[in-house]
Amino acid sequence: MPKKKTSRPNLGNIKLLLLDVDGVMTDGSVYYSETGDEQKKFNIQDGYGIVKAQRKGMKFGIITGRVSAIVKRRAAELGIDEVHQSVEEKALVYQQIKTRLGLAASEVAYIGDDEPDLPVLRQVGFSAAPADALEVVKRSVHYVCRRSGGKGAVREVIEKILAGR
User: Fold this and answer.
1) I need a surface site. Which of 72, 115, 128, 142 has the fewest CB within 10 A?
2) Facing residues of 59 across strands?
């Protein structure tokens, strides 16, 4: 059984925050209209936090297992260029991003809520999970948010990182 990380990360080193989508940027719900269109609900405070942190030099990326035009649109609205959808091996994509950007693990943070996120959460310099993440995930991260996914967890982590700079 994984244990919560005990090392104290240096939040001042974080240059890139990677995000899962469903259960992190959203509350994990997927809505379908009568015509079959998919809908998701994003938190405006999380979005503003991303923009605020970008203005201070932080970069962002998305790694998600699902594919959605809505995610692509939200990423574009927020100026997030690193968008990786339909990812089965999140740790592989994380390694590719880190290498391409010339970053050390200690310079990357990740927020995840479910089992597919565990391999990345175990490798980054700072890992976090929303309050409503799976227990196995919460036991594996540096920080468990007070807020839930889609309800300010992303903003909470951003504020924690910015305060550590």
Assistant:
1) 115
2) 16
Helix (H, G, I), strand (E, B) or coil at 62: strand
With b for 16 or more beta-carbon neighbours within 10 A and e for fewer, the 73-101 pattern comes to: ebbeebebebbbbebeebbebbeebbeee
Q: How far apart are CA 112 and CA 25, in angstroms?
A: 10
Residue 103 domain-assigned (yes or no) = yes
Identify whether 38 is part of a domain.
yes
* Per-residue pLDDT at 138 exceeds 60: yes
* pLDDT tens per residue across span 23-60: 999 999 999 999 999 999 999 999 999 999 999 999 99
Supply the DSSP symbol for 148: P
Query: Domain of 57?
Result: 11-163
63, 90 contact by CB (below 8 A): yes
pTM (2 decimals)?
A: 0.94
- The first and second tokens of residue 148, run together, are 């839930």
Rounded to 10 deg, the angle between the 153-163 and 44-55 helix axes is 30
- Total domains in the fold of the chain: 1
Contacts of 96 (CB under 8 A, 6+ apart): none
2 pLDDT above the threshold of 80: no
